[in-house]
Predict the 3D structure of the following.
Amino acid sequence: RIIQESAVEFISRRCVMGTETRSVPRSGGVGSGIVAKGAAYGNDDSLDDSVVLQATKFAQGVPLVDEDLSDLAGVIDVISEKGAGWASSYAIHLDNACLGSTGAGTVNTTVPFNSVYYAVRHDDSGANYTADTNYTSTASLAGSGGYGQLTALWKQYETSRFYSAARSVVIAHPVFKDVLRNITDNVGRPIFRDTAGETTITGYHAGASSRDVPMLLDVPLLFSLGACTSGVPSASPNGNPLMVLGNRDNLILGVRSGPESKQERLPGQDTIELMYRSRRAFHVGFESALAVLEFTG
Protein backbone atom coordinates (compact mmCIF):
# COMPACT_ATOMS: atom_id res chain seq x y z
CA ARG A 1 0.00 0.00 0.00
CA ILE A 2 2.78 2.46 0.89
CA ILE A 3 4.76 1.86 -2.29
CA GLN A 4 1.62 2.24 -4.41
CA GLU A 5 0.51 5.51 -2.79
CA SER A 6 3.80 7.24 -1.91
CA ALA A 7 5.64 8.64 -4.92
CA VAL A 8 8.63 9.43 -2.69
CA GLU A 9 8.93 5.88 -1.33
CA PHE A 10 8.65 4.47 -4.84
CA ILE A 11 10.80 6.73 -6.97
CA SER A 12 13.35 8.50 -4.73
CA ARG A 13 17.00 7.58 -4.53
CA ARG A 14 17.13 5.40 -1.40
CA CYS A 15 20.08 5.64 0.99
CA VAL A 16 20.20 3.03 3.76
CA MET A 17 21.13 4.61 7.11
CA GLY A 18 23.04 2.53 9.67
CA THR A 19 22.69 5.34 12.22
CA GLU A 20 20.26 8.23 12.67
CA THR A 21 22.60 10.59 10.77
CA ARG A 22 24.36 9.96 7.46
CA SER A 23 26.41 12.17 5.16
CA VAL A 24 25.66 11.55 1.48
CA PRO A 25 27.94 12.78 -1.34
CA ARG A 26 26.37 15.32 -3.66
CA SER A 27 28.22 14.99 -6.95
CA GLY A 28 28.06 17.68 -9.58
CA GLY A 29 29.24 15.18 -12.17
CA VAL A 30 32.53 15.11 -14.04
CA GLY A 31 33.39 17.15 -17.11
CA SER A 32 35.10 16.10 -20.30
CA GLY A 33 37.87 17.71 -22.32
CA ILE A 34 40.38 17.25 -25.12
CA VAL A 35 44.01 16.51 -24.21
CA ALA A 36 46.85 16.75 -26.72
CA LYS A 37 49.30 13.86 -26.99
CA GLY A 38 51.74 14.02 -24.10
CA ALA A 39 49.97 17.00 -22.48
CA ALA A 40 48.79 17.18 -18.87
CA TYR A 41 45.21 16.26 -18.12
CA GLY A 42 42.89 19.11 -17.18
CA ASN A 43 41.38 19.00 -13.70
CA ASP A 44 37.64 18.75 -13.26
CA ASP A 45 36.02 21.76 -11.58
CA SER A 46 32.51 20.33 -11.00
CA LEU A 47 30.84 21.06 -7.67
CA ASP A 48 31.17 18.27 -5.11
CA ASP A 49 30.10 18.31 -1.48
CA SER A 50 27.73 16.36 0.73
CA VAL A 51 24.28 16.63 2.30
CA VAL A 52 23.37 15.36 5.75
CA LEU A 53 20.41 13.04 6.28
CA GLN A 54 18.85 12.98 9.76
CA ALA A 55 16.18 10.38 10.47
CA THR A 56 12.85 11.27 12.03
CA LYS A 57 10.24 8.75 13.20
CA PHE A 58 6.79 8.74 11.60
CA ALA A 59 4.62 6.75 14.01
CA GLN A 60 1.09 6.11 15.23
CA GLY A 61 -0.50 4.03 17.98
CA VAL A 62 -3.95 2.44 17.56
CA PRO A 63 -5.68 1.04 20.69
CA LEU A 64 -8.13 -1.84 20.14
CA VAL A 65 -10.47 -3.17 22.83
CA ASP A 66 -10.80 -6.95 23.15
CA GLU A 67 -14.61 -6.80 22.99
CA ASP A 68 -14.52 -4.91 19.70
CA LEU A 69 -12.10 -7.42 18.21
CA SER A 70 -14.34 -10.27 19.34
CA ASP A 71 -17.55 -8.65 18.05
CA LEU A 72 -16.02 -7.99 14.63
CA ALA A 73 -14.31 -11.38 14.29
CA GLY A 74 -15.42 -13.02 11.05
CA VAL A 75 -16.77 -9.71 9.74
CA ILE A 76 -13.59 -7.78 9.01
CA ASP A 77 -9.92 -8.25 9.81
CA VAL A 78 -9.61 -5.24 12.11
CA ILE A 79 -5.84 -5.43 12.50
CA SER A 80 -5.26 -5.63 8.74
CA GLU A 81 -7.71 -2.80 8.10
CA LYS A 82 -5.97 -0.55 10.62
CA GLY A 83 -2.59 -1.39 9.13
CA ALA A 84 -3.78 -0.51 5.63
CA GLY A 85 -5.28 2.72 6.97
CA TRP A 86 -1.99 3.75 8.57
CA ALA A 87 -0.08 2.85 5.40
CA SER A 88 -2.22 5.25 3.34
CA SER A 89 -1.88 8.05 5.88
CA TYR A 90 1.87 7.57 6.18
CA ALA A 91 2.28 7.61 2.39
CA ILE A 92 0.57 11.00 2.15
CA HIS A 93 2.30 12.39 5.25
CA LEU A 94 5.77 11.44 3.98
CA ASP A 95 5.16 12.80 0.49
CA ASN A 96 3.83 16.05 1.92
CA ALA A 97 6.88 16.42 4.18
CA CYS A 98 9.28 15.72 1.29
CA LEU A 99 7.52 17.65 -1.47
CA GLY A 100 5.33 20.46 -0.14
CA SER A 101 6.25 21.57 3.37
CA THR A 102 6.74 25.34 3.33
CA GLY A 103 8.71 25.70 6.57
CA ALA A 104 12.36 25.13 7.43
CA GLY A 105 13.00 21.57 8.56
CA THR A 106 14.29 20.51 11.98
CA VAL A 107 14.83 16.83 12.77
CA ASN A 108 12.32 15.20 15.17
CA THR A 109 9.80 18.04 14.88
CA THR A 110 6.50 18.35 13.00
CA VAL A 111 8.53 19.73 10.06
CA PRO A 112 11.33 17.14 10.00
CA PHE A 113 13.30 18.23 6.91
CA ASN A 114 13.42 20.75 4.08
CA SER A 115 11.02 19.81 1.29
CA VAL A 116 11.53 20.22 -2.45
CA TYR A 117 9.24 23.28 -2.32
CA TYR A 118 11.30 24.87 0.45
CA ALA A 119 14.59 24.02 -1.28
CA VAL A 120 13.76 25.62 -4.64
CA ARG A 121 12.46 28.76 -2.90
CA HIS A 122 15.66 29.41 -0.91
CA ASP A 123 19.29 30.12 -1.74
CA ASP A 124 21.86 27.31 -1.62
CA SER A 125 25.34 28.77 -1.88
CA GLY A 126 26.92 25.30 -1.86
CA ALA A 127 25.08 24.47 -5.07
CA ASN A 128 25.26 27.96 -6.63
CA TYR A 129 21.46 28.10 -6.59
CA THR A 130 19.42 31.31 -6.25
CA ALA A 131 16.00 31.23 -4.60
CA ASP A 132 12.99 30.79 -6.92
CA THR A 133 15.10 30.18 -10.02
CA ASN A 134 13.26 26.90 -10.64
CA TYR A 135 9.90 27.92 -9.13
CA THR A 136 6.75 28.98 -11.01
CA SER A 137 3.32 30.00 -9.69
CA THR A 138 0.19 30.28 -11.79
CA ALA A 139 -3.57 30.66 -11.28
CA SER A 140 -4.55 29.36 -14.73
CA LEU A 141 -3.41 26.48 -16.93
CA ALA A 142 -6.20 26.45 -19.48
CA GLY A 143 -5.94 25.74 -23.20
CA SER A 144 -2.88 26.55 -25.24
CA GLY A 145 -1.80 29.15 -22.68
CA GLY A 146 -1.42 26.39 -20.14
CA TYR A 147 0.65 24.46 -22.66
CA GLY A 148 3.03 27.38 -22.95
CA GLN A 149 3.41 27.54 -19.17
CA LEU A 150 4.16 23.83 -18.95
CA THR A 151 6.76 23.98 -21.72
CA ALA A 152 8.43 26.87 -19.89
CA LEU A 153 8.56 24.70 -16.75
CA TRP A 154 10.08 21.85 -18.78
CA LYS A 155 12.65 24.28 -20.19
CA GLN A 156 13.83 25.18 -16.68
CA TYR A 157 14.77 21.56 -16.11
CA GLU A 158 15.82 20.58 -19.63
CA THR A 159 18.37 23.40 -19.83
CA SER A 160 20.02 22.42 -16.54
CA ARG A 161 23.22 20.43 -16.15
CA PHE A 162 21.20 17.65 -14.50
CA TYR A 163 18.74 16.90 -17.28
CA SER A 164 18.48 13.18 -18.07
CA ALA A 165 15.72 11.71 -20.20
CA ALA A 166 16.15 8.30 -18.54
CA ARG A 167 16.00 9.69 -14.96
CA SER A 168 13.24 12.28 -15.45
CA VAL A 169 9.97 12.07 -13.53
CA VAL A 170 6.95 14.23 -12.72
CA ILE A 171 5.10 14.07 -9.39
CA ALA A 172 1.81 15.95 -9.25
CA HIS A 173 -1.26 16.29 -7.04
CA PRO A 174 -4.34 14.48 -8.45
CA VAL A 175 -6.05 17.88 -8.85
CA PHE A 176 -3.83 18.29 -11.91
CA LYS A 177 -5.67 15.43 -13.66
CA ASP A 178 -8.64 17.67 -14.37
CA VAL A 179 -6.39 20.63 -15.14
CA LEU A 180 -4.25 18.67 -17.61
CA ARG A 181 -7.27 17.23 -19.45
CA ASN A 182 -8.18 20.80 -20.47
CA ILE A 183 -4.75 21.80 -21.78
CA THR A 184 -4.15 21.66 -25.53
CA ASP A 185 -0.94 22.05 -27.49
CA ASN A 186 -0.28 24.73 -30.11
CA VAL A 187 -2.40 22.88 -32.71
CA GLY A 188 -5.33 22.18 -30.38
CA ARG A 189 -4.58 18.57 -29.38
CA PRO A 190 -5.06 17.48 -25.72
CA ILE A 191 -1.69 16.89 -24.09
CA PHE A 192 -2.89 14.40 -21.46
CA ARG A 193 -5.14 11.36 -21.35
CA ASP A 194 -5.23 9.16 -18.26
CA THR A 195 -4.65 5.85 -20.03
CA ALA A 196 -3.00 6.98 -23.25
CA GLY A 197 0.73 6.82 -23.80
CA GLU A 198 1.49 4.79 -20.69
CA THR A 199 5.04 3.70 -19.93
CA THR A 200 6.67 1.41 -17.40
CA ILE A 201 8.79 3.11 -14.78
CA THR A 202 11.16 1.27 -12.46
CA GLY A 203 11.29 2.20 -8.77
CA TYR A 204 14.15 2.01 -6.32
CA HIS A 205 12.27 -0.29 -3.96
CA ALA A 206 13.05 -3.98 -4.45
CA GLY A 207 9.48 -5.00 -3.61
CA ALA A 208 7.93 -2.78 -6.30
CA SER A 209 10.30 -2.84 -9.21
CA SER A 210 8.03 -1.32 -11.83
CA ARG A 211 4.70 0.39 -12.46
CA ASP A 212 2.71 1.48 -15.51
CA VAL A 213 2.15 5.24 -15.43
CA PRO A 214 0.89 7.89 -17.89
CA MET A 215 3.24 10.28 -19.66
CA LEU A 216 3.22 14.07 -19.66
CA LEU A 217 5.29 15.72 -22.41
CA ASP A 218 7.31 12.49 -22.70
CA VAL A 219 8.06 12.25 -18.97
CA PRO A 220 6.60 9.54 -16.65
CA LEU A 221 3.94 11.02 -14.36
CA LEU A 222 3.15 9.92 -10.78
CA PHE A 223 0.28 11.31 -8.72
CA SER A 224 0.41 11.88 -4.96
CA LEU A 225 -2.06 13.42 -2.51
CA GLY A 226 0.96 14.73 -0.60
CA ALA A 227 2.08 16.96 -3.48
CA CYS A 228 0.66 20.21 -2.17
CA THR A 229 1.77 23.03 0.09
CA SER A 230 1.43 22.74 3.85
CA GLY A 231 2.97 24.72 6.70
CA VAL A 232 3.14 21.56 8.82
CA PRO A 233 3.27 18.23 6.94
CA SER A 234 0.06 16.27 7.31
CA ALA A 235 -1.73 13.09 6.23
CA SER A 236 -4.56 15.33 4.98
CA PRO A 237 -2.89 18.46 3.53
CA ASN A 238 -5.09 20.96 1.71
CA GLY A 239 -2.75 23.63 0.35
CA ASN A 240 -2.02 24.59 -3.25
CA PRO A 241 -1.42 21.65 -5.61
CA LEU A 242 2.18 21.18 -6.76
CA MET A 243 3.86 19.67 -9.80
CA VAL A 244 7.48 18.60 -9.32
CA LEU A 245 9.58 17.86 -12.41
CA GLY A 246 13.18 16.74 -12.42
CA ASN A 247 15.92 14.16 -12.09
CA ARG A 248 14.78 11.51 -9.61
CA ASP A 249 18.33 10.93 -8.36
CA ASN A 250 18.15 14.31 -6.62
CA LEU A 251 15.25 13.20 -4.41
CA ILE A 252 17.29 11.53 -1.66
CA LEU A 253 15.34 9.42 0.84
CA GLY A 254 17.19 8.18 3.92
CA VAL A 255 15.90 4.79 5.10
CA ARG A 256 16.74 4.06 8.74
CA SER A 257 14.08 1.43 9.56
CA GLY A 258 10.56 0.28 8.72
CA PRO A 259 7.83 0.56 7.83
CA GLU A 260 7.16 -1.87 10.66
CA SER A 261 4.56 -2.69 13.30
CA LYS A 262 4.14 -4.43 16.64
CA GLN A 263 1.41 -5.15 19.19
CA GLU A 264 1.49 -4.56 22.93
CA ARG A 265 -1.13 -5.31 25.62
CA LEU A 266 -1.73 -2.35 27.92
CA PRO A 267 -1.17 -3.29 31.60
CA GLY A 268 -4.40 -3.96 33.50
CA GLN A 269 -6.65 -3.32 30.50
CA ASP A 270 -8.58 -5.40 27.96
CA THR A 271 -6.82 -3.40 25.26
CA ILE A 272 -4.03 -4.05 22.81
CA GLU A 273 -2.21 -1.24 21.04
CA LEU A 274 -1.06 -1.55 17.46
CA MET A 275 2.10 0.49 16.91
CA TYR A 276 3.27 1.55 13.46
CA ARG A 277 6.48 3.37 12.65
CA SER A 278 8.91 4.28 9.90
CA ARG A 279 12.14 6.24 10.32
CA ARG A 280 12.97 8.38 7.30
CA ALA A 281 15.18 11.29 6.29
CA PHE A 282 15.06 13.42 3.15
CA HIS A 283 17.23 15.93 1.32
CA VAL A 284 17.27 17.50 -2.14
CA GLY A 285 20.45 16.85 -4.09
CA PHE A 286 20.88 19.85 -6.40
CA GLU A 287 17.98 22.29 -6.61
CA SER A 288 18.82 22.94 -10.27
CA ALA A 289 17.89 19.34 -11.01
CA LEU A 290 14.25 20.05 -10.08
CA ALA A 291 11.51 22.48 -11.13
CA VAL A 292 8.32 23.22 -9.17
CA LEU A 293 4.97 24.56 -10.37
CA GLU A 294 2.49 25.81 -7.74
CA PHE A 295 -1.13 26.02 -8.94
CA THR A 296 -3.06 28.74 -7.16
CA GLY A 297 -6.19 28.71 -9.29
